[in-house]
Amino acid sequence: MTTPVVEISDLKKTYMLGKVPVEALRGVNLKVERGEFISILGPSGSGKSTLLNLIGALDKPTSGKLLIDGVDVSTLNDNQLTEIRQKIGFVFQFFNLIPRFSAKQNVELSMAIVGVPKIERAKRAEQLLETVGLKERMNHKPAELSGGQQQRVAIARALANNPRFLLMDEPTGNIDSKTAREIIGLIKKLNDDGVTIIMVTHDQHLAREAKRTVQVFDGVILADVVN
Ligand SMILES: Nc1ncnc2c1ncn2[C@@H]1O[C@H](COP(=O)(O)OP(=O)(O)OP(=O)(O)O)[C@@H](O)[C@H]1O
Ligand SMILES: [Mg+2]
Q1: Residue of the nearest CA to atom 28 in ligand 1?
Q2: Alpha-carbon distance 55 to 96, whole Å?
């Protein structure tokens, strides 16, 4: 057996809203194996983003255990946390591209941060933008691209450093339904090519596009089904 990419046991997260505790996650258990495409489905406020932020090592749990690639995240120092985050590809609802950079420069930037040489960066950025269907637009800035095209750039950027897995929070939440279908097609194709994907959504139809759906409600997992 290979090590799961993510292994979570009895994970809890309580935020303090002033003096009022908000129990966003109340004991979550989850295992994600390499090559999976899993959706995390639940209504607004159910704890989806909280869970995704913990899996991405962007935030710390209140209690419980989180292993990424077999490594207990709670044992890592800040440098090690930065390193582990660089092995994860993040895609958000609001693209988060740098406005004054071209599509290509946006993709190159994440490689520059980890020290990939300039020539290699440029070559890989072009390949990735071709993969997501944006070869002709690679010198355009985000404002010169549609929402769907911007999300393609964000996906290319997330793939730049060969991440162990992709984390997506409502990746089609900010684009029209036709374009959303194209983006989900791209996500499925990436998974077919071997990319492990964890996608958060409140949209049942979108969730069913994944191979497996984990349903969260009020901070707990209610169901875990194969689609
Ligand atoms: N930083 C925070 N401080 C206090 N409470 C928070 C914080 N972030 C989230 N919460 C609360 O934790 C609960 C879960 O929030 P979370 O953002 O994980 O939900 P979600 O499922 O992603 O919702 P949505 O679909 O609206 O994005 C909610 O009750 C929310 O108000
Ligand atoms: Mg959310």
Answers
A1: 45
A2: 19
